[in-house]
Amino acid sequence: MIRRQFTALAGGALVAALMMGAAPALAQGKKVTVAVPGIPPIFSATIAYVAEKQGFYKKYGADVELKQFDNGTAAARAVVAGDIDLAWSPTPPVISQVSNADVPLVAIYGMPNPDWVVGTTETGKSCKDLAGQDVGVDSIGGARSVALRSMLTGCPGVKIEDMKQVALGSTSGPALIAGRLKYAVLHLDDLAAIDAQGKKLNILVAMKNTNPTSHYLTLVVRKDNLAKNRDAIVRTVAAMVDAARFMQDPKNADAVAEAAQVTGHNKAVAKEALKEFLAIDFWAAKDDGLPRDKITAVSQLMKKIGAVKEGKEPVSYENFVDASVWKDANAMVK
């Protein structure tokens, strides 16, 4: 009897051991907190929620908590303070932050192609008409604010000081639809939502035309935290790389749109927006999304427009990007 019980217990232990070996163990028990910009999150953050909904974090043994922030600039500051581990943050302000204060942030994954436009529901307007107007942004100095300043380089004679920026977080699109203001810095999903309301949007200026070498978002981490928790962070990135590839497949459009409803859009709008984002290769699926030419161009632009202080030099690509994290994560996905 005792022998049979021992045999059963031993067999059960063997099965449990085999089951544990079948899936990656959580990386050293470390929970990784990832900040996504916007409350509700902006559409770019869909990648993080697809990874969650499709079980990719668990697949790669990553214990991940997603945390929403008012904007990506605030999220980057939280990473610097050590309050969170990773943040999807706008590249231009982060480069300015690193350049001006030598903060110990490094970029490990990116979204290289900005979708910014300045739009209005008014007809017969041009970028010259922005002067003297309220313009919706996320926050003063935030991603939309910096994008506005950058895009105005394509509108000679008009400066950002000529208009009033209205801080609306991620709700510039809804504010435009509701008629609370007439001009706003918008994303492609905002355009899809406006179109779904039967309203016509007049695009005054677009980042792809004024600053084609700009870069949108970077996933940033403190250098010391990366050194301490590298395995957990690599696994987290692997999950998002897998999510980016999942999102490319048209067969997965419904699942992606379902996850994207966290952004506040209904499934139909999310599905239409997804097509537009995929058309510009928004989520990096084949590389780390941190091309040297774009990162360097953003650094130079921040210096040109005064976002990098006098006497300071913009951070170099080598000091801003750690390409090894994505390489190791990609090796896990293959």
From TrEMBL:
The keyword Signal applies. SUPFAM superfamilies: Periplasmic binding protein-like II (SSF53850). GO terms for cellular component: periplasmic space. Residues 1-27 form the signal peptide. Residues 46-253 form the SsuA/THI5-like domain. Its main location: periplasm. It is found in: Periplasm. InterPro entries: SsuA/THI5. Keywords: Signal. Gene3D superfamilies: Periplasmic binding protein-like II (3.40.190.10). It comes from the Bacteria. Coiled coil: none annotated. Belongs to the bacterial solute-binding protein SsuA/TauA family. This is ABC transporter substrate-binding protein.
